[in-house]
Design a protein that fits this description.
CATH class of the largest domain: Mainly Beta
Number of strands: 8
Radius of gyration: 16 Å
Structural class: alpha+beta
Order of helices and strands: EEEEEEEEHH
Helix content: 25-40%
Strand content: over 45%
Mean pLDDT: 92
Low-confidence stretches: none
Number of domains: 2
CATH topology of the largest domain: ATP Synthase, domain 1
Oligomer: single chain
């Protein structure tokens, strides 16, 4: 089977640069799998879990917060706002993130601060749900 070139990049560094059998990206409109020969596509990325698949098994997982995915027939590049290897993020860390976001919302003085805090809280909740789901897989 032909491989797809996959890169996961954050603003400050590249996390992954591999040849993969398949990559599953948490797109805003739903998860999508990328194989070699995929039709060209650009999608926004929602908070969730990105999977790199090799030899019919998940080789790597990453918790991503958002960003953009660009797909061509030969490659998939995800420009992530924030990403971490899945195994390096605990449920406790995500619970703390959610509590901090809730505190920010409570302390928000302006409409702009309130909107940002609401977004951060929604992201924190999405990440906790994704982590809980994939931790059992």
């Amino acid at each position: 089977m032909a491989k797809v070139s996959f890169r996961l990049v954050m603003p400050e560094r590249e996390l992954v640069n591999v040849e993969a059998d398949m990559v599953v990206v948490p797109g805003t409109e739903g998860d999508f799998g990328v194989l070699h020969g995929h039709a060209p596509l650009i999608s926004t990325v929602r908070p969730g879990v990105l999977e790199v698949i090799q030899n019919n098994k998940v080789e790597q997982r990453f918790l991503v917060v958002g960003g953009i995915a660009e797909v061509t027939p030969e490659r998939c590049t995800v420009l992530a706002d924030e990403a971490q290897p899945f195994e390096q993020v605990s449920a406790e860390q995500l619970a703390d993130r959610e509590r901090q976001a809730q505190d920010e919302l409570t302390d928000a003085a302006s409409d702009a601060e309130k909107a940002l805090a609401q977004r951060n809280l929604a992201v924190a909740k999405d990440l906790r749900r994704a982590q809980a789901y994939y931790a059992s897989r």
